[in-house]
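U., I forgot to send this yesterday:
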Amino acid sequence: MRIASLLPSATEIVCALGSRPQLVGRSHECDFPAGIEDLPVLTSARIGQLPSSQAIDRAVRDVLRDALAIYQIDVDGLREIRPEVIVTQDLCNVCAVSLDDVRAAVARLAEQDVDIVSLHRRSSTRSGTT
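Result:
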């Protein structure tokens, strides 16, 4: 099974469960455990490094005001690595890519069959196959 993780905690869980060999892609924030830095990065932030919390808050508000997501997904990168499962979350659109954006990206992979597993604070829910 080919797994892409778009959430640092999910990457750690996948690896802790012994599935590191199946991990084929990660988010730009995934940096643990050691060795995953060689995996393709599938997400990026629309805002860069900023000097203060106030500057970050202002930049995030500006992005949201323009009706943009804070994070973007590399759909071409997803297509290239051909994941069978994408692990993400649906709790916070400021913390990681939104579940809606993951669904939209998967919908653009019409030729691929991908399951989305969205972690939630109490359980995981399967979002369906596209």
